[in-house]
Known about the structure:
Layout (H helix, E strand, L loop, with lengths): L3 H18 L7 E5 L4 E4 L7 E7 L12 E7 L9 E7 L5 E11 L5 E11 L11 E10 L5
Antiparallel strand pairs: 1-2, 1-8, 2-3, 3-4, 4-5, 5-6, 6-7, 7-8
Amino acid sequence: MVQATPVLLVLSLALVAPGLSTRKCVLTGHWMNDLGSNMTIGAVNATGDFSGLYNTTVADNPSKIKESPLLGSQHRTEQNRQPTFGFTVNWSFSDSVTVFTGQCFVDEKGKEVLKTMWLLRSSVGNIMEDWKATRVGINIFTRLQPQK
């Protein structure tokens, strides 16, 4: 049984090692989504909070688009190399707000990707119009400039 111990040790290290070498996904930086919208996320503080700016390419009235502030939070654990997060964009050019939730991944090629789902709530005139006030969708963001 003593000779089996080194074999078991090598096998267990082979299973654990890929997880140890995985690069950590970092939210901070410049991102572009699948529709061409850009966002910049500032530093994530010790409690997981962050802020940034969002510049969308899609709107009901594209001529009125302005850069809009975003505020968010990342789940903070040192073991989590692919953290979950959420943020809110308060649109500067319309009476609407969008909340995003997602996870930051590093794919098999080392590329960082943000997979998100969002809800956009628009202001409506009365409760009878509430049915058309919320939209839902998904976006995939990729990093514009690699992390150094």
